[in-house]
Specification:
The complex is a heterodimer. Chain A is an alpha/beta fold. Chain A contains 13 helices and 7 strands. The chains are: A alpha/beta, B alpha/beta. The complex binds thiamine diphosphate and magnesium ion (MG).
Chain lengths: 354, 335
């Protein structure tokens, strides 16, 4: 199997990318860069720790690791304000953390603890932080795209302003619900920015084996909204493209579609042997590590020196360890809480034996 | 006869039917190059090629519908759902098209399509991935619903399902895929789709179950036996049409019935069984029918909670003791 980069023709040759200007990093202030670097590192280290504790059987069920894709979540969510919303699929730890969920709440959810972001009921695929406008991790491929339209509808018609950023994978692009959602967003002029994270594969299926048109952004063109393909491992390019799309969504209620070309470093989930990709392919992508690219930029432009980078690393390490300890020490949820949260107004007699 | 894994038994069934009938083809997510998400279709791509073992994108509505359309021309698609939880995306295709087109056409159309895959709860996959969908399908005239429970019946039933001229929902269980058992290698080994079976004979109480819950019912029967209670265990196999005679015959002998199901209680299959029993064998009833089901909540992720809300061996034993009016301490919380 060819590498997805070769197959999808990503990179400098892609027609949309030519419009991105020469140095998107130029416009980002150094403070924001450091902040985003830290966020990316927080996600990476959180995910790699998840990987370890999963192997220790602290986490159950499916667990989809985000490592390698951090520039997408961080570069897209950082430009948002508190009034904006984020919704995503089941590979949701990165987006949740980028949107402000504490590592403690995230890790405790994976442990199934009462202190988890979904009280131990959701698990890895179903993170939620509604006060933080993180509207979920969603387990069914493609199912949350219409929800993003509804969120956009609410934003628009309640007149409070804001946008909804909706993430999904390349595989999701083949679900009917996604296309229905794209059409609705454009038809009703909803402030939704759709972000297709094209990491080359849906489980073991390379993009070209699942889609007749493998240039994903071209498929979105038919819905009459601006589309653009960006190098998803390049934080600066992602950031710049997002600002533009978010501005239009915010000001003109103009939905947009961004395809972020990226790569996941780990298997699809913890149980994936990954036989469909060669070691060489994975290594080649690791050499374009999005975090490595930011570090290079920070050092080259003397925004951070080695000591500064090391300090952030150790702070993040400590934060991850704290989240693990917090999760270990947190109480198991009361079994009775299994019966809570089904309804807002739950008839009192539902607890009676059937 | 050879002792093989459940997933291999399914694989053999599909393999043999692919070999036997050029109209049979397999379609679903990851079924070909990846050998199946749970390796049920392992090796079939290499043997039959990409025209007959077809990888589909994540488009359940699309490829389930495609299977139904091909069946309208007389082909025999075997549509794999990675899990039946994802069949919810394709419900219109299955419940409206597969179930009703024959009827609406006044019998002009046959729909020999099989939808197969694992159903129900696995382990900590959360609410979206733990749906027991059988009562939805069994509710719908036009569909046949079959649940296999051993490597042997997995093979014999799947072959019959593929050869059947009506749409069949064929339910497996991920938790059974590694189970080993004797399986006939006769390529004409077929089991009837509409017949349940007595797995264990007994005279004191009837336990009715299907799919992986049969194994729990058997364990419960062992425990009851230790207390001198002889439980009869039925494996329903066919959920639509229901093998009423099997249930009634056993009930007329034991006069007490416990149904076990993975789904919710309300509108469940056990409710229909209780209905049949009270109407057709009222005079034989020595106790109200007890039902062991999932609690009326979406499946929680937390491991202890997930166990707590599901049917369990303990719950089946308790229910059996209740219908026998043996001392059971009622839990004080009323559940
Ligand atoms: C409706 C539905 N079908 C199948 C699945 C199983 N499944 C989970 S993730 C996945 C692949 C999705 O790939 P993609 O959209 O590219 O996202 P990625 O995993 O690469 O982030 C599949 C097939 C599912 N969760 N929902
Ligand atoms: Mg993908």
């Amino acid at each position: 199997m060819k590498t997805p980069s070769a197959k999808t023709g990503r990179g400098a040759g892609s027609p949309k990318r030519a419009q991105t200007g020469n140095s998107p990093a130029a416009g980002i202030d150094p403070q924001a860069l450091v902040r985003m670097y830290r966020q990316m590192l927080r996600i990476r280290k959180f995910e790699e720790r998840c990987y370890q504790v999963y192997l220790q059987r602290k986490i159950g069920g499916f667990c989809h690791i985000y490592s390698g894709q951090e520039a997408v979540a961080v570069g897209m969510i950082d430009p948002l304000g508190p009034e904006d919303y984020v919704i995503t699929a089941y590979r949701d730890h990165g987006q949740a953390i980028a949107r402000g969920m504490s590592m403690r709440a995230a890790m405790a959810e994976l442990y199934g603890k009462a202190t988890g972001c979904s009280r131990g009921k959701g698990g890895s695929m179903h993170f939620f932080d509604v006060p933080g406008h993180f509207m979920g991790g969603h387990g069914i491929v493609g199912a949350h795209i219409p929800l993003a339209c509804g969120i956009g509808w609410g934003i628009k018609h309640r007149g409070k302003g804001g946008v909804c950023l909706c993430f999904f994978g390349d595989g999701a692009m083949n679900q009917g619900a996604v296309h229905e959602g794209l059409n609705l967003a454009s038809l009703y002029k909803l402030p939704v920015v759709f972000v297709c994270e094209n990491n080359g594969y849906a489980m073991g299926t390379a993009v070209s084996r699942g889609a007749a048109e493998e240039h994903i952004y071209l498929r979105a063109n038919s819905y009459k909204m601006p589309t653009r393909r960006v190098e998803g491992n390049n934080l600066f390019e992602v950031y710049e493209a997002t600002q533009e799309a978010v501005r239009r969504a915010r000001e003109d209620h103009q939905p947009a579609f961004l395809e972020a070309v990226t790569y996941r470093f780990r298997g699809h989930s913890m149980s994936d042997p990954g036989s469909y990709r060669t070691r060489d392919e994975v290594e080649a992508h690791k050499s374009r590590d999005p975090i490595g690219q930011v570090v290079q930029h920070l050092e080259k432009n003397r925004i951070l020196d080695a000591a500064g980078i090391e300090r952030i690393e150790s702070e993040v390490d400590a934060e991850v360890e704290d989240a693990v300890k917090f999760s270990e020490d947190s109480p198991q949820p009361d079994l009775d809480s299994a019966y809570e949260d089904v309804y807002v107004n739950y008839p009192a007699d539902i607890r009676q034996r059937r | 006869m050879a002792e093989i894994e459940f997933r291999k038994a399914l694989n053999m069934a599909i393999d043999e039917e692919l070999a036997r009938d050029p109209d049979v083809f397999v379609i679903g997510e990851e079924v070909a190059e990846y050998d199946g998400a749970y390796k049920v279709t392992r090796g079939l791509l290499a043997k039959y090629g990409a025209r007959r073992v077809v990888d589909a994108p994540i488009s359940e509505g699309g490829f389930c519908g495609l299977g139904i359309g091909a069946a309208m021309l007389g082909m025999r698609p075997v549509v794999e759902l990675m899990t039946f939880s994802f069949s919810l995306v394709a419900m219109d295709q299955i419940l409206n098209n597969a179930a009703k087109i024959r009827y609406m056409s006044g019998g002009q159309v046959r729909l020999p399509v099989t939808f197969r895959g694992p159903g129900g709860v696995v382990h900590q996959l959360g609410a979206t991935h733990s749906n027991a969908t059988e009562s939805i399908f069994a509710h719908t005239p036009g569909l046949k619903v079959v649940a296999c429970s051993t490597p042997e019946n997995a093979k014999g039933l799947l072959k019959s399902a593929i050869r059947d001229d009506d749409p069949v929902i064929f339910l497996e269980s991920e938790l059974l895929y590694a189970l080993k058992g004797e399986v006939p290698d006769d390529p004409e080994f077929l089991l009837p789709l509409h017949k349940g079976r007595v797995v264990r004979e007994g005279s004191d109480v009837t336990l009715v179950a299907w799919s992986k819950r049969v194994h729990q019912a058997m364990e419960a029967a062992d425990r009851l036996a230790a207390d001198g209670i002889r439980a009869e265990v039925l494996d329903l196999i066919s959920l639509r049409p229901l093998d009423q005679d099997l249930i009634l015959k056993s009930f007329r002998k034991t006069n007490r019935l416990v149904t076990v199901e993975e789904g919710w209680s309300f509108c469940g299959i056990g409710a229909s069984i209780a209905d049949i029993v009270q109407r057709q064998a009222f005079d034989f009833m020595d106790a109200p029918v007890e039902r062991v089901t999932l609690e009326e909540v979406p499946m929680p992720y937390n491991e202890a909670m997930e166990y707590h809300v599901q049917p369990s061996v303990e719950k089946i034993v308790k229910a059996a003791r209740r219908v026998l009016y043996r001392d059971v301490k009622e839990s004080t919380d009323g559940r």
